[in-house]
Design a protein that fits this description.
The protein is of the alpha/beta class. About 35% of the residues lie in helices and about 25% in strands. It folds into two domains: about 190 residues, Rossmann fold, CATH 3.40.50.300; about 70 residues, no CATH class. The structure holds adenosine-5'-diphosphate (ADP) and magnesium ion.
């Protein structure tokens, strides 16, 4: 058996990330020294109070912002402040309204350096796989919110970067669509395991989808605790009523509550 280099199997490491906005008296520390890591092919969720700096952390990982302190390592290379190393799916669909559904996916593939013909073939194949082939030539506005997020997720999934950042991707969907999307995302992710870092408000969503959950304190955010999620894959809806699921949900909820109290002192 080939022994893998330890560095190679780690997709992301954030080392002691601190972020301060503003100067002097007006300055505000948002991230208080965050160190997290994601192994290759691992699905990790971050839950934390709103305003704790989750989106800020994503912007730093994606190179849109430079941290005040600390380093970002992706695939064994230091990438602090550099763009282009991750694929990203925002909360609201960011599909281009003047491009067709297929065009949106093809465009992002060709921008990331994939040959046009191959991009076309991959797009067609995947649109069939997610059941949206009949919408290939439609414009995004005719799709429902859930369908738009499917296309948006597919676009992130097909990008060549190993690491996907999903920032509350289902936040704008109604509860039922949201649950359907979680199942859908799970099944598609299992076909093509990428390293994922997901931000979510929902403890259930994190439990259902992830291998590991990182709980953040209020800002300046630090890691309060990490939880390994023990449920075997593939996961099914029945998990929602599993007593172990409920027990973990309660533990994380209590932790968020206590963390929030301490943060308020
Ligand atoms: N560019 C910025 N300048 C100043 N403050 C910012 C900036 N971006 C975010 N913040 C502040 O940082 C804190 C965390 O924001 P954010 O990362 O969006 O939190 P979350 O995504 O966890 O809700 C908030 O108080 C927000 O006002
Ligand atoms: Mg946010």
């Amino acid at each position: 058996m080939v022994k893998r280099d330890e560095h190679q199997s780690v997709t992301l490491q954030t080392q002691n990330i601190r972020m301060k906005y503003g100067k002097g008296q007006m300055s505000k520390e948002v991230l208080g020294g965050l160190s997290i890591s994601i192994a290759d092919g691992e699905f990790v969720s971050i839950v934390g109070p709103s305003g704790s700096g989750k989106t800020t952390l994503f912007q730093i990982i994606g190179g849109l912002e430079r941290p005040t302190e600390g380093e970002i390592w992706i695939d064994g290379k230091q990438t602090t402040g550099e763009r282009g190393h991750i694929s990203y799916m925002p909360q609201q669909s960011s599909l281009l309204p003047w491009q067709t559904v297929a065009g949106n996916i093809e465009l992002s593939l060709t921008i990331s350096g994939i040959d046009k013909k191959l991009a076309k073939a991959r797009t067609k194949e995947w649109l069939e796989r997610i059941g949206l082939q009949e919408y290939a030539d439609s414009y995004p506005h005719v799709l429902s919110g859930g369908m738009q997020q499917r296309v948006s997720f597919l676009r992130a999934l097909l990008a060549p970067q190993r690491l996907m950042l999903l920032d509350e991707p289902f936040g704008a969907l109604d509860a039922l669509t949201r649950q359907q999307m979680q199942q859908w995302l799970m099944s598609i992710w299992e076909l093509n395991r990428r390293s994922v870092l997901l931000v979510t408000h929902s403890i259930e969503e994190a439990l259902f989808l992830s291998d590991r959950i990182i709980v953040l304190s209020p800002s300046p955010a630090v890691v309060l605790e990490e939880f390994q999620v023990p449920f075997e894959r593939p996961r099914h809806e029945s998990l929602w009523t599993d007593p172990r699921f409920y027990a973990m949900k309660q533990r994380i909820y209590d932790l968020l509550k206590t963390g929030a109290k301490e943060g308020n002192v």
